[in-house]
Amino acid sequence: MDASKQLLGFKGAAETDDVWKIRVQLTKPGTWVPLIWGVMCGAAASGHYEWNLDNVGKALLCMTMSGPFLTGYTQTINDWYDREIDAINEPYRPIPSGLISENEVKAQIAVLLVGGWLCALQLDRWCEHDFPIVLALSLFGSYISYIYSAPPLKLKAEGWKGCYALGSSYIALPWWAGMATFGQLTPDVMFLTVLYSIAGLGIAIVNDFKSIEGDRELGLQSLPVAFGIEKAKWITVSTIDITQLFVACYLRAIGEETYSNVLFCLIFPQIFFQFKFFLPDPIKNDVKYQASAQPFLVFGLLTTGLAWGHHINALGM
Ligand SMILES: C/C(=C\COP(=O)(O)OP(=O)(O)O)CCC[C@H](C)CCC[C@H](C)CCCC(C)C
């Protein structure tokens, strides 16, 4: 178990001195999943995904770009810029513990970043895009990753702004990449996904409750620090629920009633788990809540993608 935690980049991992295992650990493969899922949602939303070898190849390349390469780069650069604070709080992490050298980390960052851009370029060529939209998205995403972790902006230290950067990048960017690969990225769907990102903001805030004491001491304006636990927990669930309810209503308004009903059915279990776990004790039950409610949220995203794809096809676009 500890060995798999090591490879997936989870906390409580066993130590290893195999540099390749350490390299994989730095990329935190567990965090690739939402990006890969986002690409699937975008492909579904394009309305043009058909199961053939060409499309499977494009989807795999888009997922490889978003997961191992660009999320891997994001996580490595984040650990690099956190190395001093980690040396105090989590000295067993690969960089502060000296399990991997500075030059090896820098080389890994460069390879993953350039690798991600090359995948994007290849996708644009493969899809015969006039404008290299996937490359543009990957450049934008890697810039957001950089300012999230690196000074002087270091958005992650800016409380809820960092949470929104994280939530929106994880939801909107892979969706846009998947959609641009298989169809046309349009302003209306961009708006819808940016809106959906507010739910992503709520999900990111859930993780801030357990670090409220430390954040307060360091002067970080996370939502629980800024508003106190009582107010912050209600703001958190409201952002998650109201956003999804709005999307469900929107799907109904554009005539996608079945998908809208499915989305409503996926929202109610999340509200149930908020009352069962999160609201009674957001500090103690954050992980329990995420584990029980998240699957419903991510299937809601896919439902929205499928609804959009169906809508586009119905309009003959
Ligand atoms: C590094 C990230 C989270 C870690 O946060 P934190 O430091 O608070 O936690 P730990 O202490 O446990 O490490 C994620 C940051 C995400 C970033 C803002 C944006 C990601 C962008 C995508 C990877 C880009 C994908 C582009 C593509 C799909 C076109």
Automatic annotation (TrEMBL):
GO molecular function: chlorophyll synthetase activity
Membrane disposition: Multi-pass membrane protein
Primary localization class, coarse: membrane
Keywords: Chlorophyll biosynthesis, Membrane, Transmembrane, Transmembrane helix
Single GO BP term: chlorophyll biosynthetic process
Cellular component, GO annotation: membrane
Compartments reported by the entry: Membrane
Record field: transmembrane: 131-150, 162-183, 189-206, 259-279, 291-309
Stored NCBIfam families: ChlG (TIGR02056), chlor_syn_BchG (TIGR01476), PRK07566.1 (NF005742)
Stated name of the protein: Chlorophyll synthase
Source species: Ostreococcus lucimarinus (strain CCE9901)
